[in-house]
Design brief:
4 copies of one chain form a homotetramer.
Chain A: H1 3-26, H2 33-40, H3 44-50, H4 54-76, H5 85-102, H6 104-110, H7 116-125, H8 130-136, H9 139-142, H10 145-169, H11 175-194
The structure holds a DNA duplex.
Chain lengths: ~200, ~200, ~200, ~200
DNA sequence: AATGAATGAGCTTTCATTCAT
DNA sequence: GATGAATGAAAGCTCATTCAT
């Protein structure tokens, strides 16, 4: 990568990083492009070199951060060593939940956007990479594809919704307290799909 | 109610009704107060007689619509005639889901705000009214209050998250197809909390 | 007209008057809306209460000033007392040319927009008023309508084009020097259409 | 011309050609330098190697295209074979009018800039070339120079103004229909100057 | 209570111009 | 000579809010 190319990437990264901080602290509606460029230390025009508007930047940010989240979980959860698919799923989820606990800003940012829809988008975008891994997960063969989809959909949406409240506000309980209940609930759902 | 009182109420209602339509169709960020008053047929200054700003109006709208939703469910689901608490819960949920299916705008509007938090707010605000009804629901005595809270929390968040996608986009399946799975999942969760 | 109504009209007039001065002195492209409102002594938002943008204001200005020009000619040229249609036409034209000579800014502003097209627009817009007068001018009956149209078109476009250069730059001669030639040319054209 | 020279000329031509298209289709005010360089396939900085700004380019374009127009008329109208000066003038004008009819974009571009002033500029700029031809046209000796100037001025301005409307909008008639009237009008003007 | 003209801070966006490569 | 990333002044425009009527 040439000097110029490096510089470009650096500016783009700076804008994304800054925007992330501002979006999470003040909300996207209350964040102006002036805020972003000022804090990022670039000129206003530079923003428009890389993004259409702040909503464009926001979308790119969501995709980017979701991918990071998922990649980390796949690389660090150790799911490959486990036997059952349910166990694999649980450790992947736990890894993500703890990443979010460590980074509540990210949780607030991704809030209610970690969804079935996004999950699919991320997977499709990375066929060569970890998406491949996902396809190897054997519980794709246990039942009909549709059934599996519904099962995953139910679980993902539930975990996503539940984690927001629990991690950010500890309401009604803290993440640590909640985890055993969550695991039990998930296992129960899985069982209900496979009896 | 005097003529003057009636007129006031009428203007306020008109503003709320109009705002609801605009918020759901264009989003709150893209709806201006000018839009609202113009469509409602009142003067700009009048808006400020009743609401602090559009976010104030929005909050009042959420509460109001949620209450209606819940009241209808309590009055029409026939939950009193059922035996077990789980059955009661399921028919109440179904009633709400079908109300939302009939009124997708309302679903889009309340989306991701039908939450544990709101559920509590609504209940607290109406102690005299139907909230009282809720307190009579016997499964409040079955287990410790905390356990019950966690259980309800888990279920409510799951149903809320799941219904949005299913009702509005029929993804991954339609509401009718999904309901049996949802019932089974809920029963599974309930069971996992009471074994 | 109520106090409020008067005030509105006053602001609108002030904006139009100011814009006229700026458009003629700096050109419309180099005039900003900030310039206009600042000089007119109103707030920026007020501009948008009355005009879509500066081009909208410009068009309204053209129509307005053209009407004034024509009205004055019809009221002061004394054309009614003359016998032939050609004589009537000539005194009306002369009146307009001398108005423009007195007000070169106006000429520069209307430049090359005093056209056949505009002439028609103005006449159509004022059916009740002086347009009525025009319709009474007997030379509308002398020849077929089409012939008359072509004749008027030729003369108006010529006078319009020619006057700009003559009045503003006295190139190749001054207005006074040019008038006899112009009259002779117009009479020649008229004759060529009626022989 | 060296390879380098050729390349330079080619870039300059490309910029002028592109600008012409953009100026006529969107207007000069709505055409940005970015538009021009992008469509011309050169870098932004390159523009400034050849032109001061877009208005500089515009002026060069006007001169250039006017010269082409006139050169063609002088070379193809066959005016040399005609007897009277009026006949020569008419065929030259007709040639130009038909060039413009074939190329309405050019007419729109040159609109209202084909004037007495420009006519002089073009003639002065090409003393050695076809301007010389013009000076040989005998009707320059028929009357006093001033009289001739006024005559030409009147005719050129009239034809210029009239042709725009007739060619581009066929209002009030088409060019073909209009030509006989125009010829008669011009002959009438000429006669009025020479009686 | 109701109005709506007026405000002006502050937003988004554009684009001519520069200059290191 | 040619490039195009970066700039930032300055434009157009919006809209929540006020307040005299």
């Amino acid at each position: 990568m040439s000097r110029v190319e490096e510089n470009k990437q650096q500016k783009k990264n700076s804008l994304m990083e800054t925007a992330f901080q501002l979006f999470t602290s003040k909300g996207i509606a209350n964040t102006t492009i002036s805020d972003i460029v000022e804090m990022a230390g670039v000129a206003k025009g530079t923003f428009y070199l890389y993004f259409k508007d702040k909503y464009d930047l926001n979308e790119k940010l969501i995709i980017h951060r979701s991918e990071q989240l998922m990649r980390h979980a796949l690389e660090h959860s150790g799911y490959e060593k486990l036997e059952t698919n349910t166990d694999k799923l649980l450790v992947i989820m736990d890894d993500i939940l703890f990443q979010l606990k460590e980074n509540p800003l990210l949780l607030r940012f991704l809030n209610k956007r970690i969804s079935w829809e996004l999950f699919y988008k991320v997977m499709e975008k990375n066929e060569e990479g970890y998406a491949a891994v996902f396809k190897n997960i054997p519980w794709q063969d246990d039942a009909g594809r549709k059934n599996l989809e519904i099962e995953l959909f139910t679980i993902i949406e539930m975990v996503s919704a539940v984690s927001y409240s629990v991690i950010l506000t500890s309401d009604p309980v803290s993440l640590e307290e909640f985890l055993p209940y969550l695991h039990r609930s998930i296992r129960a759902i899985v069982a209900s799909f496979h009896k």
